[in-house]
Design goal:
The structure holds two protein chains of two kinds. Chain A is built from six helices and seven strands. Chain A is of the alpha+beta class. The longest helix of chain B is centred in the N-terminal third of the chain and has 25 residues. The chains are: A alpha+beta, B alpha+beta.
Chain lengths: ~210, ~300
């Protein structure tokens, strides 16, 4: 391959890589280095890079609110957000479901002193979220919203040291799946829940192991 | 004692000469030694065969011999446990030195890592064995005397922190030095491994390890066939025989294929960070360069590849 053609193909490869990676929310750090050999080794990974993707699950916008009633087929009846929120004015002081007369009852909210509309966007019928500057954020991009306050956690996350993951440590051999913030932290009650520990190994000098010792 | 030099009445035979006595002693000793050497043959049982008896050290095996050994072990597992398994032998990668870090600020002591290790590494079900021991520690210091590895209540407790301890894959590993027969050694990627078929079970390494990271197979592991992890490595998670040492291998049958260790994937809090210490872009390097990192019992000079760190 002649030199100009090689450079052109490498550049195209790099562009494709970056575009695809952006679309798949690949972290910037993972795509910087390998772009140069993208054209030469566009073999296994699907995105044309020599690195597999780091996939983060995207949160979905809520499909309305449950009414607590069932239809004739026994399926719960859901109501679109706009059904109420297009006509009812928002009370910006509401910070707990106890403040509400209808709907969202029983939803536990323990997230600092945040009010509902601190995150939920009242200006488009609550179908999106909004940042501190008022610009709206799709549910899929919730992480940008969380990162406003939880900067250190977001920094650690970007360096792969916060949040659970699975897959490959070596991205040249396979993809990686990472948890999103809300996979572990319920946005309304974000504290990580207490849990009962799994059973540990029996130490031989521990009472539970006495029976099996001969 | 016998002044008239007459034969002892009870023996009633020729006087014994010094030469005869020495011959008799020599013959007796020789017979005893011969019997001792031949003892394994007398105790020959079904789970001991000639191939196993004559098997060389892992590092002296030719590729053909390795294949034969792996097939034999697969058949043994099929016979003893009724499970179809594949024993592989992934090799260290060039330019890779493994490092592991654990974030004490987020670990909640749920023992999911310990449980995942138990399943992944085909541990004995009866003892619920695992290479990971999670200590519930008093805040304010690292005092294992006050640590409790057998806690049984919801976690995390507000006045405690949790410290999982497993093999630290020391660069200067006391267990390797202690082994009298070189049955355990450090691989080029930093993982300390055991040839379970070469180990004689003397447990010197267990005594030498300052982290209590090595385990002894007191009994032949019991595992139901359907629970056996069929993806096995000769130096890692294959079912170990009775009477040999075993240890964490950073799941080398996974990590040498580029995958994460099982304990990391099981961690629900993301407290664990694994990667290549030689790759400046890796997550493990970022932790070491940017977090408050320490190693356990640094003063012993073992130089662990397992790091603990805190968030601010």
């Amino acid at each position: 391959m002649s030199k100009p053609r090689f450079i052109v193909s490498v550049s195209i490869g790099a562009l494709i890589t970056m575009a695809t990676a952006w679309a798949m929310q690949v972290r910037q750090a993972d795509i910087e280095s390998p772009a140069a050999d993208a054209a030469a080794t566009a073999s296994v990974p699907a995105n044309g890079s020599d690195r597999f993707a780091v996939v983060i699950r995207e949160p979905q916008a809520p499909a309305g609110v449950e009414t607590g009633q069932l239809d004739r087929l026994g399926q719960p009846i859901r109501l679109a957000c706009r059904s109420c929120h297009d006509v009812l004015p928002a009370n910006v002081r509401n910070a707990a479901t106890a403040d509400l007369d209808t709907f969202h009852q029983g939803l536990a909210v323990q997230h600092g002193k945040l009010a509902c509309v601190a995150c939920h966007n009242q200006h488009d019928g609550y179908t999106t979220l909004h940042l501190a500057d008022g610009s709206s954020v799709a549910y899929a991009d919730t992480m940008a919203l969380c990162a406003q306050c939880h900067g250190t956690q977001h920094r650690d996350y970007q360096h792969g040291t916060h949040g659970g993951m699975s897959g490959y440590w070596d991205l040249s051999r396979g993809p990686r799946q990472r948890n999103h913030c809300i996979d572990c932290h319920d946005p309304h009650t974000p504290a990580f829940p207490k849990m009962y520990p799994a059973e540990g190994p029996n130490d031989r000098f521990q009472p539970a192991a006495q029976e099996s010792v001969h | 004692m016998n002044p008239d030099n007459s034969p002892l009445p009870i023996l009633n035979n020729e006087p014994s000469s010094r030469r005869g006595m020495l011959k008799a002693c020599g013959a007796t000793l020789g017979l005893a030694a011969w019997a001792t050497v031949m003892k394994p043959l007398v105790e020959w049982s079904e789970d001991l065969n000639v191939d196993e008896f004559l098997q060389k050290h892992y590092r002296e095996l030719t590729p053909e011999q390795k294949t034969a050994v792996f097939r034999r072990l697969e058949q043994d597992t099929k016979r003893d446990y009724g499970a179809d398994v594949t024993i592989s032998d992934p090799q260290p990668m060039d330019g890779v030195q493994y490092g592991y870090a654990l974030n004490l600020s987020v670990c909640i002591g749920c023992r999911k890592c310990s449980e995942a290790c138990h399943k992944e590494n085909n541990h004995d079900r009866a003892s619920n064995n695992s290479y990971i021991r999670v200590f519930e520690m008093e805040k304010g210091g690292i005092d294992f005397e006050k640590g409790d590895a057998t806690y049984d209540h919801p976690v995390p407790q507000p006045d405690k922190y949790y410290m999982p301890v497993q093999c630290q894959q020391c660069e200067n590993a006391p267990c390797v030095t202690a082994c009298p027969i070189e049955a355990t050694w450090q691989e080029p990627d930093g993982i300390v491994v055991v040839d379970y078929n070469w180990c004689i079970g003397c447990r010197y390494c267990e005594a030498a390890c300052p982290y209590h990271a090595r385990r002894f197979n007191w009994e032949k592991p019991t595992i139901p066939a359907e629970e056996i992890n069929p993806d096995q490595g000769y130096l890692s998670n294959r079912v170990r025989p009775q009477g040999v040492m075993e240890k964490c291998t950073f799941c080398l049958h996974r990590t040498r294929e580029g995958r994460m260790p099982a304990c990391l994937e099981a961690c629900p809090t993301g407290a664990r960070v694994f990667g290549n210490l030689l790759d400046p872009e890796s997550e493990i390097r970022w932790v070491i360069e940017n977090k408050r990192t320490f190693v356990l019992k640094e003063e012993l000079g073992t130089r662990p590849r397992f790091f603990y760190f805190f968030d601010e």
